[in-house]
Amino acid sequence: MSRASFNTTPSSSESTAESEVDAGTEQTRRTLLLGALATTACLGCSTQTRAGEDPPGSDERPQKGDLLVFSEGDQEGKLITAADLPAGGPPVHAWPKDPNTSVVRSASRLNEILIIRLDPAELDEKTRARAVDGILAYSAICSHAGCPVTAWVKSDVGDKDVFKCMCHNSEYDPREGAQVVFGPAPRRLAALPLALADGSLSVAGNFIGKVGGVQPG
């Protein structure tokens, strides 16, 4: 009796079918992988976009109760205390910070503040009434063309140190409510009321006067 034999070599049609199945599977895997990569990339872009956005409240003007933090230098972002202010200047540049959300209101350059400590005896009556232990705060934006007020130098018209905008040489005397003492600025710097508790400075009210320049910077 002859033994039955089986042919284990696949036919050409079977091989073609198997190849098509394998190719289809591989294509599906590639499609899924590319889709996952694309989704991950999009999520990364979305996160990056959100991370680059200014947080809510960061462009709002200083509000009562805001804390004050350094806006520049090695201590940028740290709270400013009375001990950080040298008597007689120079001023410290600051941002207001929401104490509840910890948002620093740095999204608008109009929020930058000059804080200075002077001898109360040198201040005029109105300025002294607003000062806290001789500490005063003013807008750091020149009222002329909106440039930053960056210098604390000897006045061109006297022997006192004054705030100076280096763009067009406007000068302001903080002892007299930051009134203009030299240059083209049309009005004094806006003043910001302060409060002092346990050595820490905070905002006591809204700006007094208009912030910013009357001409494009």
UniProtKB/TrEMBL annotation:
Question: Region entry Disordered: which residue ranges?
Answer: 1-30
Species per Swiss-Prot/TrEMBL record:
Bradyrhizobium barranii
Keywords per UniProt: 2Fe-2S, Disulfide bond, Iron, Iron-sulfur, Metal-binding
Please report the name of this protein according to its UniProt entry: Rieske (2Fe-2S) protein
**Cofactor names:** [2Fe-2S] cluster
Determine if Iron-sulfur is one of this entry's keywords.
yes
Source species, domain of life: Bacteria
- State the InterPro entries in the record: Rieske_2Fe-2S, Rieske_2Fe-2S_sf, Rieske_Fe-S_prot, Rieske_Fe-S_prot_C
Q: Which Gene3D superfamilies match?
A: Rieske [2Fe-2S] iron-sulphur domain
